[in-house]
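REVIEWER CHECKLIST
Item 1: Sequence provided? yes
Item 2: Single chain? yes
Item 3: Sequence as submitted:
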Amino acid sequence: MAYKRWIPLFLLALWLAACAPGETPALPTSTSSGPQTLTVMTHDSFAISEGVLAAFEAENNAKVQFLKAGDTGTALNKAILSKDNPLADVFYGVDNTFLSRALEEDIFEPYTSPRLGAIPDEFKLDPQSRLLPVDYGDVCLNYDQAYFAEKGIAPPSDLPDLLQPEYKGLLVVENPATSSPGLAFLLATIGTFGEQGYLDFWKELVANDVLVVNDWETAYYTEFSGSSGKGPRPIVVSYDSSPAFEVIYAASPIDEPPTAAVVSDGSCFRQVEFVGILKGVKNRPLAEKWVDFMLSEQFQGDLPLQMFVFPVSPEAKLDEAFVKHLILPEKTATVSAQEIAANRENWIKAWTEAVLR
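Item 4: Structure as written out by the authors:
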């Protein structure tokens, strides 16, 4: 309405009249400003301690908003589809299974963090530093120890075991087209059985009544029968750190994990997760500070008990409660980044034809 515009002009006239003749009035200034907002897009499994986040916000006069966008594959699809009008400033959660796709879509800006020098070269998979490594973890089979003890059945010790009749209807896996653990497990089968044999393995899994779901949360918390899940299936694709998670976050204190990971040679695949600044970011300096923060000793040390992954920084200290129940694979399945880049889409398409149709 017109009077809303007139009132400020009237007040300005009074203020000018109050000034001494010949005096040049100074415009009012604000001595304080509110926090800057940073939006970080992540997969659904992202977590951070409140105190660690508060330290970043206080140091940088910032408010961080997290946009959880599904599993890694789903979140990356959303980032790609919105690249002309980005939903966030920073994206965390692209892993080495989706790395080449993320880079091919050209949605990230290069940034060489000053903290990158402390990170071992084995984790630096993008020479242009559009995606910087944050953490890693091994995707492995997990099983419900009580189930196998009650049934008097030995748990699987490697991937070929899953084809035995005693494991029919016991396994739940994630779809590699939508889930990074699912894709990592597919790569484990390719690394173990080769391009000529992995589809035969999967066809036999289908004959043995494997269940495929879209994401890790559904597989672990809905379909898996371990203590965190209430489902009917006692074998799930998860992480070698999941048993430690079961102990630390048990509803009632326990001394030993109710689940165990299969870590025999070639049964697991190592995931590396990255962070990157999305193109079109409105506050590049603050986005850079967030990337630096994710590589800092403070954030890196917080990672294990929040997301049950391992920090890439050798300077970060692992909590004793986290490492106590870990059993790590000595030899993970190997598929090079170059092979993944060249064949990922064809492998997923072939898997989809063999398993879902």
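Item 5: Key structural point noted by reviewer: Confidence is low (pLDDT under 50) at residues 1-32.
Item 6: Recommendation: ____
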